[in-house]
């Protein structure tokens, strides 16, 4: 797989000709909706099935095969050669591009329920790239009951397409994760038992495959109480139903603080079938402008996580969004607007901005001035940043990735994912 970055003077015809492709092939791979007006700095996935290589002195078919990690037989077949044929310096030969070179992974995506029509629209062209789909979320109440959501359409589409629906439960009350709710739940055996029974009932009633527990802002002094709750939940539902747990990102065993302290990586990693590490929100709507999921920071979290949890149990969080900040940033001031990949590129086009790329965080960004003369900075994800994150999954041998959250357009993501990995289905 190759990714091309649009340069001044480029157009789709020139890019297609450079790679021996048709314009339609590039449009189809990237789902381009404005192919005649590309943005400088925009990244484009090149859907090539082969590449060319000019033979150097000393090259042999065997050495070329090792270099590109493809069988000699495949090179011979593509070029109409036999094993007795010689190759010579300067000769141009065609090299097949290895499909899905990184092997197999599992893919989860969260989705926020809306209308039946909207859910069908979001999942069209997306569901085939998923192992799990997780409607977010059933809210836990202080008495251990669950506030249900409209999840029937999502579950039905998932089951029809061989995707495993996961019941997502959280301690959200109103718009935020509630310390009060989770504190009350973890302080009472009766409430915990009620919650566990309600989870089991919902798993059976709605035909879910398993549950994802996303409890946040837990008092750190309830760390062991949370571990014990997860043990009891597993004892009740496993192995008929799988259990996964969402974890805040950290680079060592932080035991203080409501966001990180109660998330005991090692113990929870032992209990759960898999964990989802929420490796995003370094750049967040109320904070200073920066990449949402800088690869250098994400890798530090993965290094720690894999030291205490089996890599085959780790799903790495992937953001499906970016942010548009109004400058200058003022703490406590205007919150940044969440923005999708396609929206970000369209906005750069609208304001004549050039997309730049930060190599440290491996993330695209740009500045623009709006109609009111206000300066903005946009940090988002593109095919390059997604490819770099997926390299981490491969290098650390992780179970897979988990996207937060479907709903914004980002077709290049699925193209990159599909070219690098085979998606496991349940």
TrEMBL record:
InterPro entries: CFLE_GH18, Chitinase_II/V-like_cat, Chitinase_insertion_sf, GH, Glyco_hydro18_cat, LysM, LysM_dom_sf. Residues 2-46, 51-95 form the LysM domain. PROSITE patterns: GH18_2 (PS51910), LYSM (PS51782). Signal peptide: none annotated. Keywords: Glycosidase, Hydrolase. CDD domains: GH18_CFLE_spore_hydrolase, LysM. One of its GO terms (cellular component) is endomembrane system. The keyword Membrane does not apply. It comes from the Bacteria. Residues 105-426 form the GH18 domain. Its EC number is 3.2.-.-. GO terms for biological process: carbohydrate metabolic process. The keyword Hydrolase applies. One of its GO terms (molecular function) is chitin binding. This is Glycosyl hydrolase. It comes from Hathewaya histolytica.
